[in-house]
Amino acid sequence: MHQPIKVASHGVIDYGLFAAAVAGPRLLGLTGAARVLPTAFGATQGLLNAITDQPLAARKVVPFRKHGQLETVAVPAFAAAVALSGAWRGVRAGAFLSTMLASLAAVYVLTDWDAAGDERPAE
Fold first, then answer.
1. How confident is the model at residue 56 (pLDDT cuts 50, 70, 90)?
2. Which residues of 56-76 are buried (b: 16+ CB within 10 A; e: fewer)?
3. Angle between the 33-50 and 64-85 helix axes, to the nearest 10 degrees?
């Protein structure tokens, strides 16, 4: 399967998902777990992205492939937390969290995790 999302694109998308995860629950008026879980996940994801070896990082500490390995665990853990907490209950919460999870899964599957270094800027 051809994975079209490369390192730099993944970084941009992750920052967008971070913004959506943090701002979305507030904008939609979500409360409780429907607000806390995506905000906490988004903040963690944003921090990870900021320290991952990718062109838009604040510090390049975490190798890109390691970022992918962490997402292999984090995305299913987020889905489980949403399901077990009941955060998905309610029309707005369900739609928002379903969209977040689908987006995270799609980005993960479409990312070329072996592309590390393909788009690295000259340092």
1. very high
2. ebeeeebebeebbeebeebbe
3. 180
Token digits of residue 121 = 């800027």
Size of the chain in residues? 123
Band the pLDDT of 2: cuts 50, 70, 90. confident
Looking up tokens 């906490």, which residue turns up?
40
pTM over 0.70: yes
Cβ atoms of 45 and 70 within 8 Å: the answer is no
User: Which residue is it, tokens 């838009």?
Assistant: 56
CA distance 42 to 30: 15
- The pair phi, psi for residue 54, each rounded to 5°, is -150, 160
| Joined tokens for residue 55 | 């062109």
